[in-house]
Amino acid sequence: MIVWLALPFIQRAVLAGLILGALLAILGIFVVLRRMAFFSDGIAHASLAGVAVGVLANTNPLLTALGISAVLAVIMAWLERKTKIASDAIVGLIFTGGMATGVILLALKSGYQPELVSFLFGNILSIQWSELWLMVVLAALIVAFLLLNYKRLALMVLNPEIAHLSGVPVTLYQTLLYVTVAASAVLGIKMLGVALLSALLIVPVSTAKLIAKSFRGLMLWSVIMSELTVITGIALSIQLNLPTGAVIVLCGLMLFLLTLAGSKLFNR
Amino acid sequence: MDAVSVKNLKIRYGSHVVLNGLNFEIEKGNIAAVIGPNGSGKTTLFKALLGLIPYEGEIKIFQKSIKNALKRIAYVPQHFDFDRTLPITVDEFLSFASNGKSINAKKICREVSVDILAEKLIGDLSGGQLQRVLIAQALIKDPDLLFLDEPSAGIDIEGSKAFYDLIKHINKEHDVTVLLISHEISMVSDLADQILCLNRDLVCSGPPREVLTKKVLNKLYGPEMNIREHKHL
After folding, report:
1. DSSP 8-state secondary structure symbol assigned to residue B123
2. Phi, psi (5° rounding) for residue B64?
3. What ipTM goes with this model?
4. Is B100 part of the contact surface with chain A (CB cutoff 8 Å)?
5. Mutation to test the B interface, candidates A155, A215, A221, A260, most B Cβ within 10 Å
6. Secondary-structure class of domain A4-194 per CATH
């Protein structure tokens, strides 16, 4: 791994992995707390429409996917508030609608579509400096928002009425949480692909829950577990010449199983 | 001075009228109890008073609009559903609710016997302990008006008696006006200064001994309803 680190594309991949690992681990707490795993999955799939727009417009698909998924997140929050449609049905509508639009738009472009394979399974080793900088800026903004507002967000997720009476602007925070999950999901697609993205949102938090004794502890352990997962995953995938996203996910699951076994053993 | 003043309050979901032209006042310093059968609009009334749903008519809290009075209101919900495996300590939960602004949090925690639970996880608390934690989060705001939605639901009879004693203590010692929803008619008839009987319309409003008549209870719950006296309060 040390030898590999001399290569710029490995440096970019490791940096991106560490940044995304921390981001998805902290955000994952709220995703688990609010039971919105299907939301993050749905918005990630729907962002294919944004990827397709980027491909057709000859611009960076990451930018268009970010823009479109943020708009879709705002629409979903609005529909949840203003209609009686069940939340999972709203996710289902956006999920399938966005994905179908993306498939049709991509069909308009002839030839092989590498973006589609990358969208499905991710390819962190192909990340460019421009994309990495965009990731750094967005991730820094989102993590700052989460760390500055985690008490308000946690209270809102636990009980919106108490949050409302404690002066939390619930509608605004709900929408902001949706937009941050959407943006982070799109950033995560570059690393894990849409098919595996949920793993890094859910698995590190689930592992951390086994050992954390407080909410602060949960945040700390989630980040540690996530970073361990990403680094081990990237190193093993390079060593074994296997797809990086899938190896990262399996490393996360292995860490979860080991922690589960360890916690059972020590709690006997 | 009225803590709560409601005039011609009407709430509808689509074409379905849930509350129909309510008029009542709750005097500052009183304990008022809202009673009524399931589906009578009690929780809907609370949501309107807390500014959570749209309504027709006028609601004034301490002679101000709800929005301008929010800082003086605290609320204890009926349901507090969360993933019980998530590690959140009582101390952390209380700091979420006060956002670190309360100066008398420790004193209040001692008063409602929550201080001994500080390091416990909220997912490990019993129904009665969780209810006391919810009361603590409400009192930490130093409110003038406290809303309690079926506060003793899920607590055994002894726990329920202790809980209503605590409400009375809060009302007297902290000078907090209390508005609560309850199904325990016997208990609230001893506790409350004012009863609001709700069945979409306001069936009665006044002191328990005046309004809790057989005729009113029949109208609310049917002919099988009786009141038993409680000696502990």
Report:
1. G
2. -120, 165
3. 0.82
4. yes
5. A215
6. mainly alpha
Confidence at residue B203, expressed as pLDDT on a 0 to 100 scale: 81
DSSP H helices, A83-169, are: 87-107, 114-121, 129-158, 160-165
Contacts of A161 in chain B (CB under 8 A): 50, 52, 75, 77
The C-alpha atoms of residue A90 and residue A80 are separated, in whole angstroms, by: 7
Facing residue for B75 by CB, picked from A32, A152, A161: A161
Domain boundaries, chain A: 4-194
Residue type, B112: V
Rg of chain A, C-alpha, whole Å: 18
Amino acid (1-letter code) at residue A126: S
Least Cα distance to A249 among A182, A175, A191, A166 occurs for A191
The mean pLDDT of chain B is: 85
Neighbours of A257 (CB within 10 A): 11
pLDDT digits (tens, 9 = 90+) for A159-214: 999 999 988 999 999 999 999 999 999 998 877 888 778 888 999 999 999 999 99
Q: Which of A75, A78, A76, A48 is nearest to A64 (CA)?
A: A48
C-alpha dist (Å) from residue B29 to B4, B47, B168, B171, B213: 11, 21, 11, 7, 25
User: If you classify domain B2-221 with CATH, what class do you get?
Assistant: alpha beta
The token pair at B68 is 């301008």
pTM reported for the whole predicted model? 0.85
